[in-house]
## 1
Amino acid sequence: MTTINILIDDRVRLMSALLAVTSWPEDEQTRKPHGTHAHARGTRRHLLAHDKHPAVLILQALLDRGVPLGDIFGYVMRLSWPGLAGEQPPPWAPPTWPRHLLDFYEKAGLSQWWQDEADVWDRTRRESEKMFNGVELHPFLEPFVGPFDEVLHFAPNVCYPTDREIGLTTEGALYCVTPPRIAWGDNPPWPFDEDPAHVYRAVVMGFGRMLMRRYLGEHPDVLAAAAQKKLPIASQIATTFPTWEEQFLELFCGGLVAIYLEDTVSQQEAQAYVLMEKKARGVEELPGVVSVLRRYLKGRAEGSYATFADYLPYFGSHLRVAKTIASL
């Protein structure tokens, strides 16, 4: 019995399709040229005549203002389907947007389009179910973030965005909206079930970040005390993530992924992930982070620490020692 539910949700598909007729596809290619899924390209062609629809223009304005995709998708996921009614919109969303979204869905013929593409989505679901059969993430995450009751949903996405996963929360649930792994050059992305490491990285990173961010918010005094000492990180990471909390989350989630891959896939996959993070993003600290997190788990098993909050004040100093040893 898996603790991760595979979800094909029309609200996710609606927002993903809406992205297809904003500047997002071009922006992705500017960041890194890559081949996209045939369904994503087909959706873009299907919707180009609707690129001036108010729902599209509103989403484009939100993207231009830098509203995170997780916030945008999360808000829509809290609306009902198919009526898209529900909670008061957040301050950044126009109150008329749900009405425009519903109008876009109907006028663009998305229901029929998804029926025409049903084989694609059915195959995507089957590939994902294969990957998560028997996977239990709660026991892996709880030693770090404490007990949690949320249902974990994996939403495979073969539309947009194609270059990143989206983590979002609703009442009682966490979602990880994840595209397949990008292939080399103009080749189409990999099927979900041909690259387990990509799928597991996405969910461990996504769920781990959301849960640890909440955990830190529940322990503000511990966070404030830990943040008094700078983390021993490369300047590239410090520039990209200026606050102590964001730096810690980046290191923590990366280390968590490496541990999960080593324990459930293979040591080779974990090493490949660590090497890729170093080459592609300049994250040189992951071997030390893995050592530090395993040190915490060992101490927790021996009774030295009851919770991760007990260990957090030592994270930075222990990481500094681990990095020094690794450099010898």
## 2
Amino acid sequence: MRIFLHHGILVAAAMLGTTAAEAGSLSVGNFKAEESCRFYVTEWEREIAVATGSSSASSAVVANPYGAAGARRSSSQASSAYLREWGTELNEICSQNFPRIRSTMASALASSGSFNPGDGTFTVNGFLTDIGYESTSYGSASVAEANGYILASVTYQVKNAKGNVVYGGSFTKRFNTDTAVETSRSTFQSSQSGRTVFSQLQEQIGFAVARQVLFHFEPLRVTANDGRSIALNYGPPIIPMGAAVLVSGERSIEPRRLTVISATPGRAIAQSRAFANLSDVPVGSEVFFAEPEDEYSETSTIPSVPLP
């Protein structure tokens, strides 16, 4: 593995063989906004104003003795308090072409160890296509909860030395910014500043792009299986603790959702929280990684069985 600088940031180049001609390299290029930075700041301010405004309006008519209105109002106030700060931070990182996304991608690619994209030189470029704000609320006779989220849509392309696109994709990241929960006996509220929010959001985007690119060239696979747990060919930060993965066995076409319970450099261990037997999962078979936004991450881990 060779590490060098490209456009001022770290780049990972996987090496096999003894000469540069035999080496395949994968570097991080540009990551820009598809529109002008001011366009996204304006859209962001408009969306968060609408979301927090509707949240406040609904709280006036959905109040109950356990604080549903208060939870909505707290979440709305927390979001509004950071409106200007978030707009400033968004404009700054956009103008700098999202430095944390690029550095996170480069570090994540470098962490893959002996990974090799094959012959040739490849560059990963990305674009922020959309960013917005979403608020949700829930109220019942005993509890009320309200949440605020940033949604960021991204596209990326992997190009070869000739500039031809050899792979690409798109996804949307959903990141929690503030939470308010109220019951008859307790109240909980959490919010983050704009700088913290955008730093973490950039990191999550960088890791997601790196995962998809790495798994394209060298898929996530089962490297060992003892019947209760499986080992994977990637470790942190590509595969973090608590992540959800899906595997298929030879006795069933329905994939099983597993949870990563331990992770060391270049290796992660996953098992079923429902203690499903994994002995029919072949070593070498491909594994699907579920991002936190994927529905698979929320799927029940309890397998269905026929009733007598």
